[in-house]
Amino acid sequence: MNSAIERIKNHLAYKLGQTVIEHRHNGGGVFNLI
Question: What GO annotations for molecular function exist for this entry (predicted)?
C-alpha cells in the first residue's frame, strides 16, 4: 500500500537526477539552485 510513497520517492529521485545532469552540462554547481 506504499505505492504513493514510492511514486513520490521515484519522482524526487528523477528530478534530482535531471538537475545533476543539467548542471553537469552547464558546468554549474548544485548550490546555484538554492
Answer: transferase activity
